[in-house]
Amino acid sequence: MTIVDDSTTPGLAEPPTGHGPRRDPAPLLPDPRPVRVLGTDAAAAFDPGLLHELHRQLVLGRRFNQQATTLTRQGRIAVYPASTGQEACQVAAAMVLSSQDWLFPTYRDTLAVVARGVRPIDALTLMRGHAHSGYDPYTHRIAPLATPLATQAAHAVGLAHAARLRAAADPASAEDLVALALVGDGATSEGDFHEALNFAGVLGAPVVFLVQNNGYAISVPLARQSAAPTLAHKAVGYGIVGRLVDGNDVLAVHRVLSEAVAHARAGRGPVLVEAITYRLEAHTNADDASRYRPAGEVDAWRARDPVTLFERHLRDVGLLDDARADAVARAAEELAAHIRAQFDAAPAPDPGSLFEHVYAQPTAQLREQAADLAARLALEADGTDGGAA
């Protein structure tokens, strides 16, 4: 095969008519190294009030993960994909959004959902198997937790683009919103991820994609699923900006995501942010991570625990003492106790809700099935054998 250098070959310096102008990829390339703030002079620019709130959310988030994991061991939650070790990404993602913005989470992002204002019991409803979703997406502006990989990324693009079209048609309805889609490194290998970024780039939709690269798609290491220099480099192929950040540095994640949201909100197009992080726990409670991860690797990442790193920074700059740390720890224990108390009262799901929120207009088959179930439940309530002739 002969490689043609079109910069020197006559007639090939410009693309044929109709193929569109070429873009300079340089402004789209991600940071050469993951952005870090902790341990640098940039940390001094953050407001102390924000630092305290970030710390509080991190500690509450860690305790939330621990309590939810314990509930799975007790058989009170069917499954729980912990985000332990990834709390900096989860907390920052929730905190950089304004009230009019939308969050599109995955099944591992219950902490981000809680940090944005959903009650823990409601955020865990799906994991209990009691309902499609425990919260109203429109009330909280949070899409349902997505179990299929990357499908929510395309939904985020669609919502953001639709909001912009509505604003153009009716300026009075303009909300200036941004959609933030959370995905894992495994999701970047899915077709839905490609389609979402492609449409976002073409449409210039106000969307931010946060890839929490924790190194594994369940048991598959990143090197087995992508040969890209970084996942952030994937942005260039779609004509959007890529950013690379240390996902265990909560200040760096907050800063980079804030810049990305501002970029998208200003109409400058979507942004793909890759956060380098690590899940300290197994994929879920049904997984044995020791089968594919060496203990030394996990220990090395424990030394970069985002909660510990941030607490060390706050103590070094005089913003955290034992009294404040104890107060936040007590608040975390109160949260855990509140979650346990809510789980003591098991809900009584309505079987009829099985047919809700499937189609905007139920199909004939669904209506038939719903009527059959209602009839059977009525017979049971009357003490009649529904199977008798």
List keywords for this structure.
single chain; 389 residues; alpha/beta; Rossmann fold; five-stranded parallel β-sheet; two-stranded antiparallel ribbon; 7 strands; globular; disordered N terminus; EC 1.2.4.4; 2-oxoisovalerate dehydrogenase subunit alpha; DH_E1
Describe it.
With 389 residues, the chain is an alpha/beta fold. The protein folds into 2 domains: 26-349, Thiamin diphosphate (ThDP)-binding fold, Pyr/PP domains (Rossmann fold); 352-381. The chain has helices spanning 48-73, 87-95, 110-115, 120-123, 125-128, 137-140, 151-169, 191-203, 250-265, 295-302, 306-316, 322-344, 364-381, and strands at residues 102-104, 179-184, 207-213, 216-217, 220-221, 241-246, 271-276. The strands form 2 sheets. A 5-stranded parallel beta sheet has the order 1-2-3-7-6, with helices on both faces. A two-stranded antiparallel ribbon has the order 4-5. Helix 1 crosses helix 2. The longest helix is centred in the first third of the chain and has 26 residues, at 48-73. The protein is globular. The chain starts with 47 loop residues before the first helix and ends in an 8-residue tail after the last helix. The relative contact order is 0.14.
